[in-house]
Amino acid sequence: MKDVVKLLLISSLLIFSFFVACEKTEEEEHPLVGTWAMTNMEQTSTYKADTDALAAYGVVKGATLGSGTLTWTQFSAMGVSATVILKDDETFTLSGNLPLASDTLGKAPTIVPLNDQGTWTAAEDLSTLLIDGQLYDIGGVLTVDDKDNPKVISMTYSETAIPDTVVLPVDANQDGTPDMYLPDVPIVEDATTTLGWTKQ
User: How far apart are CA 78 and CA 110, in angstroms?
Assistant: First the structure.
């Protein structure tokens, strides 16, 4: 009788351990793990002078040199596309054709093939996402269609006060067409970007 009770107890413990192990395995896979295709990209940027050296052209430090928004329709027409694989070990790979900003203010970006890899982390409630790659280091607010089984996600992030230099077209005679280009003009860019992804 004791042997039967022992056998039942051991069997029960094994069954319990099996279910706990299965449950643990299911809990360990993050809901964002998988392959995601880019389905949206929108960026709004404002460029401001970071020098007083252009006062002769009516431009003082802090003056807005240009601003605008590029939508997904425009980006996709340029050939922008990307796929990111978020792995369960919190590493990622990214490949695609992505925009590289022109060094001349007002000109469309160049689309170049890029690959990146690194690590990613998300808040437990999926409210934020951080991508730490070799080329891209971004973090922002995340929205998901379903927190338990997301199929569509969107991330919005801002980059502000990024010092850079650009070639600045100047319309000195005010005829509507630039008649000179000033090289190496220091600027500060404020940009807000939204990226959308659909699980494959």
Answer: 8
